[in-house]
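Give me structure tokens for this 248-residue protein.
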Amino acid sequence: MPYIGLTGITEVGEIQFISELWKSFPLNRSLMLGFLVSGKQLLSITHENPRYVNLRELSSLLKKARGFFRVLHFNSQVPEYPHQIEQLLAKFGSEIEGIQLNLNNPSPIFIEQMINMQLSLEIIFQVRQRYVEYPTLFLEQYNSQELAQLGKCKYFLFDASQGKGIKGNIPQILASYQFFQSLPQLSRMNYAFAGGLSGGTLGEYLQNQTLKTFSFDAESQLRTKDNLRLDYLKVKDYLFNAYSLLKE
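Here you go.
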């Protein structure tokens, strides 16, 4: 089932607000709640970006979010990231449905091992912007066997923004989608997009009938001006417009 995503959840009150609001939008989609986690947090380093969840509070937040598609959005800059993910799954794996890999060329072997370790876990593979612009570079990075391993992911996410609020290039997204769909190993993949999404920009994407079938996720454009929390009016506008556009 395609999802509508809200990422950067850090407070119980945000989950309570979203839970009540979601009842007003009877869509045949799941609502993905994304919790940002960095590898540096596992090294006891506080993340400077307030969108990242406090790991001491994560378990209680995930319990409050039961019934939604709960996803950890994980990034790391160190080669030991597989061990860091194993740590996260050991602690929170029973409380999540998915993990999004915001990594630079993650290992296909490790992805396959992760899926075998937790069969119900849905993997969202973030396709970096250089591959959206030049998708043939993907074949220089990954061989046929590795593509087959990546094909076990649940979603490929085209994300120009990576949390920076940059809008995606719709013709590039569509061209990349056609390219990846043409690869036998990835032909059954589900697809998603992100990048500068808000209630105001969503229509630019969803007027395209192909993108209307994709999952999508919003983060930076739904924050308060100080970036400390979700802006409830922006969240309401985003979900209302998603509902209006998708029910057409």
